[in-house]
């Protein structure tokens, strides 16, 4: 019964559950699913578990002061989100899968919360809470990586690329040496996993360029 109201609602409920599992706040789940906040609170957070509280992230200011590791991890999430969108994945599911992949590749505590990832994706594509894009994915002419940059900023100059900065500083900065985990490109497993969601036929999966490996 794909396309019926009940299957659409079941899909949104499953999405809401997945978002809550990833630590999303009610506001974020509401924007991603369209389900009412009161219903989400009742369905997802009855009992002792409480949703995250406090001010929701606003990445437009945050990104200017974010350190190198934050900018790298934000870039990895948004780049994978963008690739999944190109494969035909709906935006909400693409965000969940991109965040799950990020979560699986990095040690706790994670630097980028699901709410932050939502805000970054929203302001890169002009979705959900954002009327227009404030960020873009720029391509580095030096290393070929895609990285998050402010729209209309210095953009494609390699000096803006956090991956090039990592390569330059890795080994000299103990924090980077200890923290950095090479984020591999999106795996075939995720593409296979997303095949039922895509619902599109005849598309050829994109093989993304690998991200650079850190110098020893
Ligand atoms: Zn670069």
Automatic annotation (TrEMBL):
Keywords: Activator, Bacterial flagellum biogenesis, Cytoplasm, DNA-binding, Metal-binding, Transcription, Transcription regulation, Zinc. Coiled coil: none annotated. It holds the Pfam family FlhC. One of its GO terms (molecular function) is metal ion binding. It comes from the Bacteria. One of its GO terms (biological process) is bacterial-type flagellum organization. InterPro entries: FlhC (IPR007944). This is Flagellar transcriptional regulator FlhC. It comes from Alicycliphilus denitrificans (strain DSM 14773 / CIP 107495 / K601).
